[in-house]
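Please decode residue identities from the backbone states below.
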């Protein structure tokens, strides 16, 4: 069948699409490429019209051929083989490995609002004279008291303490809050005594905090982000539904406010205790306690007086009272993460030693070996940083599981351990299969011998550096004989086999 002067209708409709695709082809072969595609397209269209095969499936198949001309012409311009080799080298490069870890770090930062939890933990406390604040807790393991103190103790310290300027209590709960602008959602609810924010010395971003002797249990103070989430603009005077109860917002805390690593919260007053209620050791009203010490008085100096006043209420000997500076307690939440990182390093080293045991020292130049170790250290540090930041940013979400449990934060440190171990094991595995000279990941694995034989022709795998610097010989591990992995450097005579291909030279 030869090309006729009266071209088929399908050809007249399809050829412009293919002709435009020709501009993507290299200029020297563009005319020839268009001529080849024109002949194929003309004969195809003529065959379809002469045989009456002009149904929708046939036209769709013809359309796919036309649009596939675009990637085909583009590959001709990009030189497919050399481009794929450059892409493969890029994926095996040390820069790509570091960029991949850094990309995960950027994702964590983006999802967490710019590492907000980490920034709050490391930033100065948003309190006036924060060095005078201390947290008080009852630590006698043989008592009926849980961590914290009975509320009556806080009242006694606030009224009769001479070493403190004031004392306040707090308790955490989980609540459901919503507004006219935002549907209901879980939030942290901080129940506090009226002088809580006065003891802390917090200045509000908008409105006011609770006043001493205030009894409005339907008034609320919001964290800055919750105020923006529920109301967008000014929140003071707005109504917020908390657990089905309407509350009036009287103040908004500053953006940098946080209290003992807790997340954003709605703050309200604790219900006043019944006048006839008596606090007993069997069923105490347990709250967290924070005190503001007077100038020049240390936590240790204030401890005897706090113990003596607590004994007046409890009517028995008390020994386990712990007074810790609030600045120290606010930073203590970071220690479990440090321990998790140390444990992850040890655990990963043990596991990797089992996988890469008895590895020989890398032969070759000391400079190449030094770069190999520097890259491994940099990658591992970046992995540990990403794991710790990701776990810390999960902390506020962990607090929502059990807001009243002060130890729930430790769950995020376990996450840090898991993230760090997984990341370090990847770092070890990735580092083993990298060239000792250029740090590119080895490729072209070749099986040598018989992996099923343990005495003769023991199985092994050899991988070669894509840039021709050497090979890694990795023996099949056994329980009775561990042949060391061997790295062999190539001399300059091998470079001709790994140079640029002929297509890229032209």
């Amino acid at each position: 069948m030869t090309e006729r002067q009266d071209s088929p209708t399908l050809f007249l409709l399809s050829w412009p699409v293919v002709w435009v695709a020709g501009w993507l082809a290299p200029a020297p072969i563009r005319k020839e490429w268009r001529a080849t595609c024109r002949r194929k397209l003309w004969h195809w269209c003529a065959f379809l019209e002469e045989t009456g095969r002009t149904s929708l499936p046939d036209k769709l198949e013809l359309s796919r051929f036309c649009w596939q001309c675009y990637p085909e012409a583009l590959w001709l311009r990009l030189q497919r083989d050399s481009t794929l080799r450059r892409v493969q080298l890029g994926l095996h490069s040390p820069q790509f490995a570091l960029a991949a870890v850094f990309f995960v770090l950027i994702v964590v930062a983006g999802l967490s609002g710019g590492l907000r939890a980490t920034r709050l933990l490391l930033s100065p406390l948003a309190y006036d004279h924060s060095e005078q604040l201390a947290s008080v807790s009852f630590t006698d393991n043989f008592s009926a008291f849980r961590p914290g103190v009975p509320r009556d103790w806080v009242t006694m310290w606030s009224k009769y303490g001479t070493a403190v300027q004031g004392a306040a209590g707090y308790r955490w709960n989980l609540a459901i809050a919503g507004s006219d602008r935002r549907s209901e959602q879980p939030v942290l609810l901080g129940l506090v005594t009226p002088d809580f924010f006065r003891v802390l010395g917090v200045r509000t971003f908008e409105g006011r905090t609770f006043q001493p002797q205030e009894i409005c249990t339907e008034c609320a103070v919001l964290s800055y982000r919750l105020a923006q989430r529920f109301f967008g603009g000014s929140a003071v005077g707005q109504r917020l539904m908390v657990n089905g109860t309407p509350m009036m917002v009287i103040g908004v805390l500053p953006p940098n406010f946080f209290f003992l690593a807790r997340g954003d919260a709605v703050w309200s007053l604790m219900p006043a205790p019944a006048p006839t209620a008596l606090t007993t050791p069997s069923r105490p009203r347990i709250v967290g306690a924070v005190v503001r010490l007077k100038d020049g008085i240390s936590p240790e100096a204030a401890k005897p007086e706090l113990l003596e006043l607590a004994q007046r209420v409890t009517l028995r000997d008390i020994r386990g009272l712990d007074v810790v500076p609030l600045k120290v307690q606010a930073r203590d939440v970071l220690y479990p993460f440090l321990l998790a990182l140390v444990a992850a390093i040890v655990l990963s080293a043990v596991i990797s030693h089992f996988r890469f045991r008895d590895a020989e020292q890398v032969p070759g130049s000391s400079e190449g070996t030094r770069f190999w170790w520097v890259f491994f250290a940099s990658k591992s540090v970046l992995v540990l940083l990403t794991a710790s930041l990701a776990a810390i940013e999960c902390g506020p979400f962990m607090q929502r599981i059990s807001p009243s449990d002060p130890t729930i934060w430790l769950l995020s440190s376990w996450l840090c351990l898991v993230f760090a171990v997984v990341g370090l094991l990847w770092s070890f595995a990735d580092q083993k299969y990298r060239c000792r000279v250029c740090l590119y990941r080895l490729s072209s694995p070749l099986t040598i011998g018989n992996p099923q034989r343990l005495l003769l022709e023991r199985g092994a795998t050899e991988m070669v550096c894509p840039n021709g610097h050497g090979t890694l010989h990795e023996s099949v591990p056994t329980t009775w004989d561990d042949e060391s992995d061997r790295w062999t450097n190539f001399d300059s005579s091998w470079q001709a086999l790994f140079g640029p291909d002929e297509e890229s030279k032209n």
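Observation: The first helix runs from residue 9 to 21.
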